[in-house]
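INFO batch 0412 | record 1 of 1 | parsing
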Amino acid sequence: MKRKFSTHWLSSKQPRKQRKYRHNAPLHLKHSFLSAHLSKPLREKHGKRSLPLRKGDEVLVMRGNFKRKKAKINSVDLKSSMVTLENIQRTKKDGTKVNVYFHPSKLQIQTLDLEDKKRIKKPKEKQNASKETKSNN
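INFO prediction complete | emitting tokens
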């Protein structure tokens, strides 16, 4: 199998090829793989179900030993597609503390870091469609 990433690849039923696509994807595409669901109030507010994670977002852990813990994102690792959270650490046998890595599918975004204004764009089609329906009535 070729190792090089293909931009023309659409999809495959084979898990082997799906894994290969995700593994060999360039970092700017891997960023979109790091998406997590939004909480219900955020979903209603922004009209989206999920968004890519960023440093500074506050998330809720949904699965695992740290279930129901809220924390801010400390770092995002694009190569391994994992995220670390502030103050969530494990103690090793020798007593040192190590950050725990989480997969984005096991997290839910509670508050967004909206320093970047372009992070969430309101779709203009929805706004225009609502104006047209009001003008037709």
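INFO post-check: The first strand starts at residue 35 and ends at 38.
INFO record closed
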